[in-house]
Amino acid sequence: MGMFTVIPQDTFEAMQLDAGVLLTTFDPANPSAPADSAIICATTGGINVVCQPEYSDLGEDVDNVPNNMKELKHLDSWTCSLGFTSLDTSAEGIRLALGAADITASSGKIVPRRNLSQDDFGDVWWVGDTAEGGFVAVKLKNALSTDGFSLQTTKNGKGQTSCTLTGHVSINAQDDMPMEFYVHDALNVTYTQATLTSAGFKYGTKYYTRSGAGTTESPYVYTQVAENAVYDSSKTYYVKSYS
Questions:
Q1: Contact status, residue 220 vs residue 210, Cβ threshold 8 Å
Q2: Of 160, 184, 208, which closes a domain?
Q3: Element (H, E) at 74
Q4: What is the pLDDT of residues 195-222, one digit of tens each?
Q5: % pLDDT > 90, the chain
Q6: Residue ranges in 136-220 assigned as alpha helix (H)
Q7: Span 175-194, average pLDDT
Q8: What is the count of structural domains for the chain?
Q9: How many other CB atoms sit within 10 Å of the CB of residue 65?
Q10: Are residues 105 and 148 in the same domain?
């Protein structure tokens, strides 16, 4: 292997896995498994998270100024959205896709509304697991469906509703952009002593060694063993798990 044919050792830990879930509420400071009532819908094909800047070049019409001079670059706005395909054709699922609409609970009737209400906007969270047992979360603020309702049915298949939720800036907080990101390390990490022999020391499992005093003031430090390490019977090895 060449000197620069390498990847960071924490690549696996930083990977985001699976599709994640769309939620109406989430507290990144006190994360917990979501209540069923907080899950917006079942999805298919994953979630598309977009936070795209829009720039102006204030020097593009000025003589003798090269394009994209950094001192004349101006950030106009951010376009923030969550795109997904929903398998939910409940009344609330259809209302969410429509954006401006009302539900008549007694009859199950959903009617698009001519005028937009401030109550049509609401915060939406996407939360996904990371390989190390932590999570990545995205908060879309003041979200509103902007592509409308589109239901595609198939023979012997499931109906699928395409939905794009776009975040909006509030007049009451004009400097707050409509998307926030949160990254959290593993919630509960446990290191368990591994029972090993030389023959069993294979790097299909990552191993760690321990150092430190192991007190509250000076906790143990676990260091990942190099992939090409040779088994040392004088050392105690540990494996890491998450919960």
A1: yes
A2: 184
A3: strand 73-86
A4: 887 777 776 678 889 988 877 777 888 8
A5: 60
A6: none
A7: 87
A8: 2
A9: 14
A10: yes
